[in-house]
Each structure stands twice: as C-alpha cells, then as structure tokens.
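Researcher: I'd like a candidate sequence for this fold, 276 residues long. If you have to choose between options at a position, lean toward the conservative one.
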C-alpha cells in the first residue's frame, strides 16, 4: 500500500520550533495540484531556495522528515511561476510518477493543505483561526475553539461466497474499475454495523463472520479506510443502489476484472483473496 514505505523513514511528529531552511523541500499546493520544478527530462520537488525569490507572502507548515530531510507545506493559490521552469501537476500525476515514499509524503501534505483551506475561519464565532503552538491543530483566540485535521472513518469490505468475491463498479465515470464495497461510518455506529448497513444499502446482500483485516490512512479524501473480510449469508440476491452502483457481480479467482492497484487497501484485499 502507498503508506507502507519501509525501509524509508518518515517522521510526522508535530514540531513548532522549526522554520524552513534554503535546502528544505517545499510542497506548494494550489487546488488539486502541487508545484514541481523541471529538471532535465523530469520534474522534482523544489526546495525553498528554488522558490523563495518567486513566491510571495506564503505561510509554511512543517509536515515532517523523510530520510532526514525536512518537508514543508505551502499554499500556492494565486502564485505565478515561470512556465519554463515550474508547473502545477495534478496530485494523481505524482501518484503515478514518483517513488512511493514521495507519493505518500505529497499525499499527506495535500491533506494538510485542504484542511487549512477549509478552516480559515472559526465555525463557532467566525474569527480567523491560527496555528496552535503545542499540537497539530488550529485555534480560535476569541472563543478558544480547537479544530483538528479531518479524518473520516470509512469501512471497506471483501464479501466472500465460497471461492468468489463480490465486486462493484460505481457510477462515477472517472473510476470504471471494479472494487470492494465501501462507505462512511454513520454517527452512533460501530465499524461492524457500518459494514452490514453499507453492504445492504449498496448491493442488497447480508453478511456474517465480519473479520478485521487492517487499516489505511487515505489523505486524498481525508479518510481512514478500515478493511474487513465478511462471508455472504446466502439468503439474499444482489440488488444494487443505482445512484451509487452501476454494476455488481460475483467473480471467481480466474475471472477477476481489471482491479485498482495495491496503493489502496481495496486492491490489496482483492489480491489477498486471489492468492488464497
């Protein structure tokens, strides 16, 4: 999975007394894109030294240290950079073209960027929020409201029937591959209850013997994916929710369709089934 980067070492410990230095790396985001610097026939993450004479009035947030090198997150909204040297690339370009440790770090930086962009003002009193000194949080100095990074829990479940697995394809035209059933956990719900409800809502079947697999943070949507395997009870047929699901089928190991890659927990879980 994209977050499993050993032997590379990533330290995300929050630090307040560290300022960006010229050779530190800068992850500068604008909307769904990150700034990269042209280097011969490829693109690389720029250092502060690279952009300091170009970028104006940008505030830095320390992300962490990868293999001993510091990385900072910046907002690039409204900034203009020389096109012959710099380009903003979609986050998914980085996912497909960088080594896994950098892909993961860019994803984490993107989550922090979206959190800051969505929390400029206090939701209680409307005052400007500021970085909290002692932890990774934002604080209102008027009403003392504290805002932490958004991490929404999502269940994802591999439903097994004998030697077959239930896979579904969503209605979003951007994602036409088959994957596992997934959905957000509701208020007052356990993870296991969310599995039962989401499966019933999306494909109409009942499950039993729900077993935890593993979890994966997914910064692209500010979610924590919690994986489960479950067994089909055998007493209900597939009935899809047409608003979210375009198709759902049982697949044997030798008839599996094109699948999501193992960057994501869903792709890994399908391969665990295929190899079992």
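Model: Candidate sequence:
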């Amino acid at each position: 999975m994209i977050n499993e980067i050993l032997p590379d070492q990533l330290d995300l410990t929050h630090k307040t007394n560290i300022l960006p230095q010229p050779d530190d790396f800068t992850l500068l985001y604008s909307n769904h894109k990150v700034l990269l610097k042209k280097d011969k026939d490829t693109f690389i993450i720029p250092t502060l030294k690279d952009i300091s004479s170009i970028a104006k009035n940008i505030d830095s947030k320390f992300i962490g240290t990868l293999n001993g090198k510091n990385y900072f997150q910046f907002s690039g909204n409204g900034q203009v950079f020389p096109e012959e040297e710099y380009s903003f690339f979609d986050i998914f370009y980085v996912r497909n073209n960088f080594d896994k440790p950098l892909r993961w770090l860019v994803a984490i930086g993107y989550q922090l960027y979206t959190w800051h962009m969505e929390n400029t003002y206090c939701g209680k009193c409307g005052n400007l929020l500021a970085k909290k000194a002692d932890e990774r949080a934002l604080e209102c100095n008027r009403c003392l409201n504290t805002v932490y990074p958004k991490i929404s829990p999502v269940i994802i479940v591999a439903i097994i029937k004998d030697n077959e697995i239930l896979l579904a394809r969503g209605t979003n035209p951007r994602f036409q591959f088959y994957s596992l059933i997934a959905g957000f956990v509701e208020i007052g719900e356990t993870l296991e209850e969310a599995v039962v409800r989401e499966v019933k809502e999306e494909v109409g079947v009942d499950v039993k013997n729900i077993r935890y697999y593993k979890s994966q943070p997914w910064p692209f949507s500010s979610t924590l994916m919690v994986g489960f395997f479950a067994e089909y009870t055998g007493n209900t047929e597939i009935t899809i929710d047409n608003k979210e699901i375009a198709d759902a089928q049982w697949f044997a190991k030798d008839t599996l369709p094109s699948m999501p890659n193992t960057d994501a927990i869903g792709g890994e879980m399908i391969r665990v089934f295929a190899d079992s």
